[in-house]
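Can you make up a protein sequence with its backbone structure tokens?

===
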Amino acid sequence: MRNPFAKPEPSIKRRKNPEGEYAHLDTAELLDAVKKSAHSDHRADLDILLNVFLDRYQARQQELDDINHHLETRIQDEVNLREANHKLYEQQAKMAAMGEMMDAVAHQWKQPLNALSLISDMLQGDFSSGSVDQAYIDEFTQDTHQQIDHMVTTLNEFRTFFRPKSTEESFGIKRCIQSVLILVNDEFMQKGISIHIQSEKEILIRGIENEFKHLVLNIINNSKDAFEERKIKQRDIYINFYTDDTHINLEIEDTAGGIPKEVIHNIFKPEVTTKPEGKGTGIGLYMSMQIAQKLGGSLYVVNSDKGARFLLEILINKGSF
């Protein structure tokens, strides 16, 4: 029998958990629910809604952080790859230039070695005929020293050409070009190539001299190869340097017929070459552009009536002494 005086047991009312109800809402709908709940009598729903919203925000923020970290990693990987490729291009350019220089030194030494061999043979014959006297010996010694001096000069230029330098210094454009020509003079003469330095006045610039020599050598060697490949008869290279109000300018123009139109706009990109497959890497002009930029300038090329004309422009504030 039910006791009429007993107090009824309290019943527990379980309120519906709105998290499951709201979890499927998109961000705009969730914000709208937050606004409505803020003005309703069920403020407890607002706390749960805010928790849902904050959890979703934190999840999105974590996704963004992960994406940003991934992008930073990819960017750093690309930078490292670019730096590695640039060092590889530098090494390839250096090895290619060294090969060119070894050929040049061989040409430079061939003539004096032949001359020394001829002088030695003449000495033996003249001694047998009794025509050797003090005057003969003096002339013989002078001729021998002249040929040896030529070889030593070539060797010294070759050594300094590849001697690494990291500090900038002031140097003269004309003297630097003449130094390059000492290395290539005999080879170019043998191939019938004449180089004309049209400027008389020396101009000083500031930078790494050996790198500037590489730039000049790359351009004139390209002209040499074009003369050979196209069987050009008139083989001239004109070098001119001058200043204007804002720049120091160096122009190198050949008579090799110019660069094909489909290539000329990409000629300074790595691995772009006009040479037959296996005879060119396309690294030389790419590195020349890098050197020009280190000097505070730019390197351009256009086709003239005669051939290709390369123009190096260096800002006076950067490149002048």
